[in-house]
Write a structure and sequence with these properties.
globular, 5-stranded parallel sheet, 10% strand, 12 helices, alpha/beta, two-stranded parallel ribbon
């Protein structure tokens, strides 16, 4: 049973404080597990590389790499429409009203913008920034706001990425963000998981959802119930359990405590079922799944 922890929005202005980023690195090392951090290459406001926001990022990333953590690409500037269109569950969030309207009114234009050639150009630009900063190859990707397009998936393959993780299996997590706590969980199946992988040329490792987004005590039990259900579903369907948190939002409530409890649950559940549990990052997962 594979458990892959991921973190989004590293170095994204207003969503990633270096001290919170450092705390996450220390937290995962303390927990004894690896994780994949998705880094935004360019600051949208200034057009400069991410490390110009703070001198702390590069040393922290190199420390994390030395500790076995994995750092990959999160779009180019984290613009909502640079490579595709976010799914309905994202565009339905209150702060996405203008983006939802834009997507609806500019469908034909966006289809042209998301050609394979344009997507390849933007992917390559972001990859160069990160590889120069990390002094290491970029092999994986997750799209900002989980946007997608056929051009993006083809571009990822043609640019030689080894894995992507831009699709979700459990949309109910976004219902919880909207305080719709009575929405029943979606069913996670191997067939659906496999369909998403085929859609993305075999690169996709879909995530479940973010259970920790500014998690309040009032939502804690319900979110944990959902996470346990999803983990058990992935185990029974023989697919990896991939989840995500975000740099600042996971610190804006009960998120860290939640993750510690979830890791203990996963260990206990696998022990009871006689399953071997491997905490992996997505680069390790892609390699293991290919083998």
């Amino acid at each position: 049973m594979y458990f892959a922890m991921t973190v989004d929005d590293v170095a994204l202005r207003d969503w990633s404080k270096p001290k919170n980023f450092q705390h996450l690195i220390e937290f995962f090392v303390q927990e004894g597990l690896s994780a994949t951090f998705f880094v935004v290459p360019i600051d949208e406001e200034t057009g400069k590389p991410f490390y110009t926001l703070s001198n702390d990022y590069i040393p922290l990333i190199r420390d994390g790499m030395a500790a076995g953590l994995n750092f990959e690409q999160h779009g180019l500037r984290h613009n909502r429409f640079e490579l595709g269109i976010p799914p309905a569950m994202v565009l339905d969030l209150p702060h996405e009203v203008e983006n939802k309207r834009y997507a609806k009114e500019n469908k034909a234009f966006l289809e042209q913008e998301h050609s394979v050639a344009n997507c390849r150009k933007r992917l390559a630009q972001g990859k160069r920034v990160l590889e120069d900063a990390f002094e290491a190859y970029i092999t994986g990707f997750r799209a900002p706001a989980l946007q997608e397009s056929p051009g993006m998936f083809t571009a990822l393959k043609e640019e030689g990425y080894c894995f992507d993780s831009s699709k979700v299996l459990q949309e109910t997590g976004w219902d919880y963000i909207l305080d719709k706590m009575d929405v029943p969980p979606r069913k996670i199946t191997r067939a659906r998981w496999q369909g998403l992988r085929e859609q993305s040329h075999g690169l996709m490792f879909p995530l479940t959802c973010d259970y920790t987004w500014y998690l309040t005590p009032a939502k804690y039990a319900k979110a944990m119930e959902l996470a346990k259900l999803d983990f058990r579903s992935c185990m029974s369907e023989n697919i990896p359990f991939v989840t995500v948190c975000h740099v600042d939002p996971v610190h804006g409530g009960e998120g860290i405590r939640f993750l510690s409890e979830l890791y203990r649950f996963a260990k206990d559940e696998c022990a009871v079922k006689g399953e071997k549990l491997d905490f992996v990052n997505l680069k390790q997962l892609a390699s293991a799944w290919k083998d």
